[in-house]
Design a protein that fits this description.
With 323 residues, this protein is an alpha+beta fold. Helices cover 23% and strands 32% of the residues. It has helices at residues 11-21, 28-35, 91-106, 120-126, 182-187, 198-205, 250-262, 317-320, and strands at 2-5, 44-50, 53-67, 70-82, 110-113, 130-140, 158-161, 173-176, 213-216, 220-229, 232-242, 267-273, 285-287, 297-303. Strands 1, 2, 3, 4, 5, 6, 7, 8, 9, 10, 11, 12, 13 and 14 form a 14-stranded mixed beta sheet that branches. Strand 11 (232-242), helix 7 (250-262) and strand 12 form a beta-alpha-beta unit. The longest helix has 16 residues, at 91-106. The protein starts with a strand and ends with a helix. 32% of the residues are buried.
Amino acid sequence: MELIDLDESYCGKVVQFLNQELPNIANHNEILRWQLRNPLAPPIYKIALDKGKVVAQYLLWPVLYSCNGVSVQGSLSVNTITARSHRGKGLFIQLAKEAYNDCLKKKLLFTIGFPNKNSIHGFVNRLNFKIIDSLNYFNFINFTSLNKLGLKYSTHFHGPEFVPSLPVVKCCEILPAASFSFDTMVKLGAFDHFPTTDWFDWRYKQFPSRNYYVFQSDSIIAVLRFKYHYGLPICWVVKLWTKHDRELGNQDLLGINSIAKASGSLLTLTILSEKNGFAHLENSFIKNQLLNRIKPVPIIYKCHFEQVNISSAHLMLGNYDVI
């Protein structure tokens, strides 16, 4: 068994491995090429080879986080996969330790992740991660009772994207992300810990086979996705910023919800950390009743250097919706 860093010569073999292990995703080659173009820094991409064949992988993205108003560089645990034929042999733990050694070399202060039930044991018990919070599904309060609308939904959670109508609303606008200038917002200081727009353009304009939209008002910017879930047209709030660090208000969320309704969505939905400050707002998101069959996703954290005071309160769907 050999553990190595992914390089160009192994990309084809990694795509074959992903096609075998995740056959429901059709565009592994495009997603892999996109992941390798992370403008902040090259990803940490470890693979395990058995007789020249890829049998496991682990991927970390370098990401900027704001800690107490200071921009710091950490990493996001994105993708761990082991071939069915090689599970139970400790490959993930070996790859992860190699990856975290690279975090030390690259001065990535910490790693944040969202493990599933199969991997959380290894993260916590063998790699010394701590559970600091959880992500849960929330919907806007106006849309809690679908039964009153006489709607029936399918049991299949994931569905295709749909193209929303893009309403023109006074003092607000919604645009495809490809048409939105993140550069203008950075110059205005809307994103205090991102000095350039390269990461935004890569993340929200260049993601293969995924369409994001940007809602903007005088006070907030929100990245949205429009998808069918359980057969229902839903507006997902992927990421949300207030301009110049102002406090989020009720009218901000009402504005997003109005746009979502006018765009053809029956639900305005997001995933938020349990400690997210949105919940205190009178007209805010509440825990979703439609999706109560889905358990919260744990947020885990590992510090590679001295203790960093990282808050989970800003984490939401945009950190989770990465593959």
